[in-house]
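SEQUENCE, STRUCTURE TOKENS:
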Amino acid sequence: MKLKSFILTSAALIVPAIAQAQNQNCGNRDLVVERLTTKYGESRRSIGMAPQGRVVEVFASIETGTWTITITLPNGVTCLVASGQSFEELNEPVAPAGIRS
């Protein structure tokens, strides 16, 4: 749970700078997702809402271990926030709300 919050908070802080600069790592969501699927074999593994109507998604491939974090802005522009190797799915129990680990 802490990792998800960290990712959403980090991504929410990084994306404005990326979008403002019209970075080459941004594009139409459909095209970005198609490329992640066809070139890297990644599929969406999780999704969450960030401030200001932004959507954060994690894409990954179990076969290759690659992963990508994206943020989609309300206007449909999707930006790559981070990517890497060695993706693993975890099945860790979630602590009830209000209980710290």
About this structure: The first strand starts at residue 26 and ends at 28.
